[in-house]
Write a structure and sequence with these properties.
The chain is an all-alpha fold. It has ten helices and no strands.
Amino acid sequence: MPIPCLTLSQVEAIAREAHRSQTDKAGRPYVEHLAAVAEGVRIRGGSEEQIAAAWLHDAVEDGVLSRQWLDEAPLPLRVKEMVLAVTKRDGEDLFTYTGRILATPGALLIKESDLAHNADPDRLAVLEPATRTRLSEKYAQVRGLLGLGGGVTPAEQRDQANPAAG
């Protein structure tokens, strides 16, 4: 008999508990970010699987839940695939990372919502100017690589990296 999958409310509770002691770069409870990303996925028309993946999107990357936990969790395979797609790996370049997101059905919406919350001007305003600038540039670069509006495209990146070639 198959094990029933975790409900969305169970996934949310697991994510909240796993990240309960974390804070974001501005010192706010990290679960606020998770809730905002999940809500962003919901209002963008995401499925329950995408919302579940949004709650878990940083869990493996941040080390609050292990890859083994994810592999063994009673979750649909699609949820696991989306979580792993948006999980940045040590030493991984942005082209590989964004390529994996684009190749995984459903993952782009999660990353779009994540980037939207990360780049929220109110969130960025409380950071040190150098950090704010660095993160804003990083988020724009990732948006461009993912083909989302407001980002720097790969061609623009090449031109910026080698202005004499233009």
